[in-house]
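Deliverable D4.2, example record:
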Amino acid sequence: MLRALYRRAITDPTSLSRADKNAVLGRPSPEEEDRLCQDRVHLSFPELLAKALSDPQALSRDEAELLTHGADHHPAVRRADFVEGFLRDAPMSPEDRRLQTTAREALRDSEEERARANASRSLDSLAQATRTDTIA
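Output generated by the structure prediction step:
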């Protein structure tokens, strides 16, 4: 199932639904992704992306973290622990891993990458402001 989806992502990325894209990218379903965003920042994931593109300075820390780390990221779980657990629970052959990587690269979205970059800069600014306030 995923192999066919990965191949379709590589050959015709525009044919994929948001749910298909999320599956290839290892993200929650669109419904779950939107629910997680709504629960935390009262915006759907597409609304959050739009805000990061149109007014990145207005992003809250939670909004910037959701975009930077993903809607299903939990701050209490170290990313290395999450990745290690994921790789252990979902073993893949080297061929499937290459197919997955190629499919994910094919789905790179310049607007989403720009929104995530804006969110990352926003987090950096918030961290700098916090350090400055602590020193003062």
